[in-house]
Design goal:
4-stranded mixed β-sheet, mainly beta, 6-stranded antiparallel beta barrel, about 15% helix, 4 helices, elongated, Pnp Oxidase, Chain A, about 250 residues, 2 domains
Length: about 250
């Protein structure tokens, strides 16, 4: 794991977590605070006697979660939650949380949510898109940054980019890997909407790919295309017109 991430995980701070909705199966992201006691990561909350938090219910159904670091160090870490229900363990931990928050520990021991979080190793991230990326007339830019820690795997395979006539597109892809990480990359740029007579008719395309391992640049590729003579539609006179039939003759008297 990256040194900066280890340092960020060594003390409590505000983060986001994403759980899976127990009824919908959809991702549910919230902001919350984590604590570190004796080198272990815990998440709790204010005591509520009237209900159980939705995020806790989600983790009871599926303990897999994403732990999002925010601030100077940003990362989305695959993690697993353990819901803590044993009374003695709850008291030992929640009394420490109560001291941090300067609250009465008894309501927290009785009603506060409490989980222990374990950051997973060997995670696999798949980054793709729902359909081709269409770049319309005007100026568009896109930046993709992926950081793969430890022995994780990143599969980066967005659908092809389709630049239309008179568009300007700038793309930067930055991929940073630890020495033990793996990467599968597919980056495709098409000629445009060929069926509409547009072949390399974008005004300008700039694409930069940067790959580094353990902080050292392994590969940098810069591609640029500026179109001086663009493909044109055929003139109106050359386009096929619908066949016209003469009006019917009136019946003979």
């Amino acid at each position: 794991m990256d040194v900066e991430i280890r340092r960020a995980l060594s003390h409590g701070q505000v983060i986001d977590i994403t759980t899976t909705g127990r009824l919908t199966g959809l991702p549910r992201r919230i902001e919350i605070v984590f604590h570190v006691f004796d080198g272990r990561i815990y998440i709790s909350g204010m005591p509520r006697a009237d209900r159980v938090r939705a995020w806790l219910r989600n983790l009871e159904a599926d303990p897999r979660m994403t732990f999002h670091l925010k601030g100077p160090v940003q990362a989305a870490l695959a993690a697993t939650a353990r819901v803590i229900t044993e009374p003695d363990e709850r008291r030992a931990i929640l009394e420490k949380v109560a001291r941090v928050w300067r609250r009465d520990p008894e309501p927290m021991v009785a009603y506060s949510p409490l989980i222990e979080v374990t950051i997973d190793g060997g995670a696999t991230c798949v980054l793709t898109t729902q359909a081709s990326t269409k770049v319309y007339k005007g100026t568009t830019s896109q930046r993709t940054s992926v950081r793969v820690h430890g022995d994780g795997v990143a599969i980066v395979g967005p659908d092809p980019v389709v630049p239309v006539r008179d568009s300007v597109f700038r793309q930067t892809t930055e991929l940073a890997l630890d020495g033990g990480a793996s990467l599968v990359l597919c980056d495709v740029l098409t000629a445009g909407r060929v069926a509409f007579g547009e072949r390399w008719s974008a005004t300008r395309i700039d694409s930069t790919l940067d790959i580094s391992i353990d902080g050292a640049r392994l590969l940098q590729v810069k591609a640029r295309r500026a179109s001086a003579a663009r493909a044109r539609f055929p003139p109106a006179a050359a386009r096929r017109s619908p066949r016209r039939f003469p009006p019917p003759r009136p019946p003979a008297a």
